[in-house]
Automatic annotation (TrEMBL):
Source species of the chain: Nitrospirillum amazonense
InterPro entries: Glyas_Bleomycin-R_OHBP_Dase, Glyas_Fos-R_dOase_dom
All copies of domain Glyoxalase/fosfomycin resistance/dioxygenase, residue ranges: 24-132
Protein name, as recorded: Glyoxalase/fosfomycin resistance/dioxygenase domain-containing protein
SUPFAM superfamilies referenced in this protein's UniProt entry, alphabetically: Glyoxalase/Bleomycin resistance protein/Dihydroxybiphenyl dioxygenase
Length: 315
């Protein structure tokens, strides 16, 4: 099926305002999770060590300082990363039952082949790959990892009417949408627009299997979601969660379990209209590449790590 995207020489640079640079997963089973992401998903470890104390402070999670950490990248080397951080088990945490970052949506080359590879891994398939009626843009699959993180592993087929969806350049490639479980969808949308400079995309009401299964709702129950974007670049999916959802349980001074942090490119930190959790700093390593970064918290306490791209990155 042909793509609607522009020719490659007209494509914007990867690092720009609104780009998802990384997703951070907190897991109590660090060694096994690392094997899952490296050997099953085929990501490459590009940095490993302990979380620096100043980085943990920037997250508003000083207790995470010194925790084991690994930064992984797809073999395409396009500039997107997935970061694992070790954390203690959090009693009461259940995937897709609390507010905050609910899932990372990742583009994959062959979702059916990947599904076969997951059989002997630490990932549990909660939504096997299948085409969805009315959606011809991708073939979705949903899994839960050892840390209680949810990944949407989607084989992109073509762009949407108002969004460019990335074709995979590796078996498992970039995070292209961050899925937010919101207590108040309108409030989260307003925050992303006003504080972060994102744009409102489409709003949809759909039978959402992940939500319906997690809350024991009928299969035809519809949830409302709104997309945010920068131009044709997708950024987040804001899902209105049911009344039975709760605040994400979180250890004192630590990161939330599962899908913990989204690292997002912004043109300038001084344009962010939300209080920083700590002063902007520069951290070493391939994710930050000498750029300043700082974090803000959204309406449900979700952590946005903002990496300053500069005006040139917005071209």
């Amino acid at each position: 099926m042909p793509s609607m995207r522009p020719q490659a020489d007209a494509a914007p640079v990867f690092d720009r305002h609104g780009r998802i640079k990384a997703g951070t997963v907190v897991t109590a089973d660090f060694d096994a999770s690392l094997v899952d992401y490296r050997d099953t998903l085929g990501l490459t470890v590009v940095e490993a060590g302990a979380v620096p104390s100043d980085l943990a402070a920037s997250w508003g999670a000083p207790a995470a300082g010194g925790a084991r950490m690994a930064l992984l990248a797809p073999v395409s080397g396009n500039g997107c990363f997935l970061r694992l951080v070790e954390g203690a088990p959090v009693p009461g945490y259940r995937p897709a039952r609390s507010f905050g970052w609910a899932a990372f949506e990742i583009t994959v080359a062959d979702v059916f082949a990947l599904h076969a590879r997951l059989a002997d891994s630490g990932f549990t398939v909660i939504g096997p790959p299948k085409k969805v009626a009315g959606f011809n843009n991708f073939i979705p699959m949903q899994v839960v990892g050892r840390g209680g993180e949810i990944l949407y592993l989607n084989q992109v087929l073509e762009d949407m009417a108002d969004l460019d969806l990335p074709l995979a350049a590796a078996p498992v490639d970039v995070i292209f949408i961050a899925v937010q479980a919101a207590s108040d969808r309108a409030a989260t949308l307003a925050f992303q627009r006003q504080a972060l400079g994102l744009e409102e995309g489409g709003t949809f009401a759909i039978p959402y299997g992940v939500i319906n299964n997690a809350f024991g709702l009928p299969a035809d129950h519809r949830s409302t979601l709104t997309m945010t974007k920068v131009g044709r670049l997708p950024v987040a999916e804001i899902d209105q969660y049911p009344p039975d959802a709760t605040a994400r349980p979180r250890p004192a001074g630590g990161l939330p379990p599962g899908n913990a942090v989204i690292s997002l490119g912004v043109d300038r930190l001084d344009r962010v209209a939300a209080p920083l959790l700590a002063p902007a700093t520069v951290h070493p390593g391939p994710l930050y590449a000498g750029r300043r970064s700082a974090c803000v918290a959204g309406p449900d306490g979700e952590i946005y790590e903002l990496i300053e791209m500069g005006e040139v990155g917005n071209a």
